[in-house]
Amino acid sequence: MSVIRLLVLGAVRQHGRAHGYQVRNDLEFWGAHEWSNAKPGSIYHALKQMAKQGLLHAHEIAPSTAGGPPRTEYEITEKGTEEFFGLLRASLTAYDQKPDVLAAGLGLMVDLARDEVLTLLEERVQAIRTWRRSVTEYYTPEDGPEQLGHIGEIMNLWVHSADTGAEWTRALIERIRGGAYTFAGEGEPFVGVLGEGEENPFATPEPHPGDRD
Questions:
Q1: Which of 34, 162, 54, 153 is nearest to 103 (CA)?
Q2: For residue range 70-99, what is the model confidence (pLDDT) as tens digits?
Q3: For residue range 161-184, what is the model confidence (pLDDT) as tens digits?
Q4: Three-class DSSP category at 148
Q5: Cα separations (Å) of 43 from 66, 189, 209?
Q6: Mean pLDDT within 134-151
Q7: Is residue 50 within 8 Å of 8, Cβ to Cβ?
Q8: Exposed (0-12), middle (13-18) or buried (19+): which is 16, by Cβ within 10 Å?
């Protein structure tokens, strides 16, 4: 799945309308430039591409009185909202070895209802169990990795990753069942985006041509 599409759609949706630099700023505030492919060029490309695909609506804003070219503000469309929730649900259920998929889903999971998130995470645990069984058809963890030579360390890593992933997911399920976090429909949501002009302590200093769009 495309993590950058999920992150960008999520950021735009939380703002209502946002220009490219706001989206970049938000994703850097979340640290996404460290754990995903959400780099400036990818962000601006995704915004323009999804506008062409009808997932975002591009509004051209008049130049400020200080001068400079007009900026484009993006707003998520009905089609984009469907895409967003589809990607979000997939990120929470699929057992993917790439951590950025799950990280993106966790950052946006409160856009769903609590009960649905619990259901999706239970599906994730089941997916991990199924995947683990497919590995242990060829590898018996109790016999140790040496049974397959040094290549056995690969399967040993996979099995340990599955076990820790399932344990972590079950702990998250219990926290959510216990009332942690504010999910859709439960009240005032946690504000995970920066306000206009709000300083981002985690921003990267390198400018990008798209910052002016």
A1: 34
A2: 778 999 999 999 999 999 999 999 887 678
A3: 899 999 999 999 999 999 999 999
A4: strand
A5: 26, 25, 12
A6: 82
A7: yes
A8: exposed
